[in-house]
Structure formats: C-alpha cells, structure tokens
Amino acid sequence: QVQLVQSGAEVKKPGASVKVSCKASGYTFTYYYIHWVRQAPGQAPEWMAIINPSGGTTSYAQRLQDRVTVTRDTSTSTVHMELSSLRSEDTAVYYCARGASTGTTGWFDPWGQGTLVTVSS
Amino acid sequence: EIVLTQSPDTLSLSPGERATLSCRASQSVTSSYLAWYRQKPGQAPRLLIYGASTRATGIPDRFSGSGSGTDFSLTISRMEPEDFAVYYCHQYGRSPYTFGQGTKLEIK
Predict the structure, then answer these.
(1) Cβ–Cβ contacts within 10 Å for residue A9, how many?
(2) Do A95 and B44 touch (CB under 8 A)?
C-alpha cells in the first residue's frame, strides 16, 4: 500500500536547523509530487513546500522561502525538508503528504505519520 | 492567498445525528479544487472528499460534499463515534495551498 514514513521527533535550540525525512513506498516515487505541511499545537495545518521528485523542482510558501529547503533522493525514494534559523514559533508537527501525479494541483493523500519538532532553549 | 473560513468552530451532536459543516473561500476556488479532511487527536489528517464532492477511497457514503465557487459544505448523514474529531477544508487549486481553521465535532 502507499505509505509515507517520516523520521523521528527532534528537539532543537533556537537558531539551529532541523532536517526531517519522508520515505515513500508502494508506488513509483517519481510519479507524484510531495508536499510539506506543518501544524502548530491546536492550530490548522499550514502548507510549506512542494517538490517534484522527478526533476527536483521546488516551490515554497513565501513566508518560509528564506529558511526552508526541500530535496529528494531518488535512489532511496526519500524527500528531505530542512528548516533553518529555528525559533520557538516553529514548534509543530511536520507532515509530508503525497500530491498530484500531473502538475502541482492535487489533493493530499496519504500523509506521513508526522514528526514533532520542538524548539526550546 | 485564498482564505478559507469554516463554520461553526464547534458543533455539539449526539451519535446518529446529522452534521453539516461549512467552508467559505475569500475568492473562487479553481475548478472546485476543494478537499475535506478528518483529523483525530494525535493522528495525521485523513482525506475524505476531493473535487468538492468525490469521496476518497474507502470513505463511507455517510460523508458527502457539495458546493462550488466560494461556498462548500460537508455533510455527515449519521454521526458515528469515530466521526467526533476536527474537520478541515483545503483548497489545492492555487498556491499557496490553504486550509480552513477547522470545525470540531464534539459529543453532546
């Protein structure tokens, strides 16, 4: 079955960087876009970024584009999301989710299990 | 950016009752690219509806979606215990892709 499995929880200090991974299985990795979405405690999800695993092209939410980088490794069917210059407001659960197979327009299904990133001094 | 506003914020219902959730967009949602998700505590959101009215694979027919343009709704015909959760609408037609603030369905 289609599955996205994410790396484990992280605790970081303000100013540090964090890298979260998302390993895909059950389908052809390069055929579907992958999104990153984060959800702060008690808040709605917030879209962060999209990557085309085939060519590696990316697009980022404007408010995060200076701090977020998404890459992929086709040999391991894994997408990585790195967020730098962490601040307390970045404390959230970070999800990857599969998007469309053609173009960037598509619903998000399935989602990874989520990775809690805690930023605290 | 398309802002999605859901109403109500919280809805108190008994099992077996009907639930109607609303999602209003600040501008027209391209080609009804509107989805609904259910999120239980400690879990990732799960896709229920896409294209405003198409049920995702494995979703029971008590869930139905409707609407177009700027006004959309999700109806649960008879609430089951597992349906008490938070529901989000989501537009995926135009970047940045946005979510509503959520509607919590709680047990009366």
Answers:
(1) 12
(2) yes
Q: Which residues of A touch B95 (CB under 8 A)?
A: 50, 59, 104
Strands A92-98 and A115-119: antiparallel
Question: B95–A59: do the CB atoms touch at under 8 Å?
Answer: yes
Summarised one tens digit per residue, pLDDT across range B33-92 is 999 999 999 999 999 999 999 999 999 999 999 999 999 999 999 999 999 999 999 999
Inter-chain CB proximity A47 and B56 less than 8 Å: no
pLDDT digits 0-9 by tens, A17-42: 999 999 999 999 999 999 999 999 99
- Report the DSSP pairing between strands A78-83 and A68-73: antiparallel
* CA angle in degrees (0–180, nearest 5) for A70-A15-A39: 55
Q: Are residues A111 and B45, on separate chains, in Cβ contact within 8 Å? A: yes
Is the pLDDT at B30 greater than 90? The verdict is: no
Burial status of residue A47 (CB atoms within 10 A of its CB: 0-12, 13-18, 19 or more):
buried
Q: Is B22 on the interface with A (CB under 8 A)?
A: no
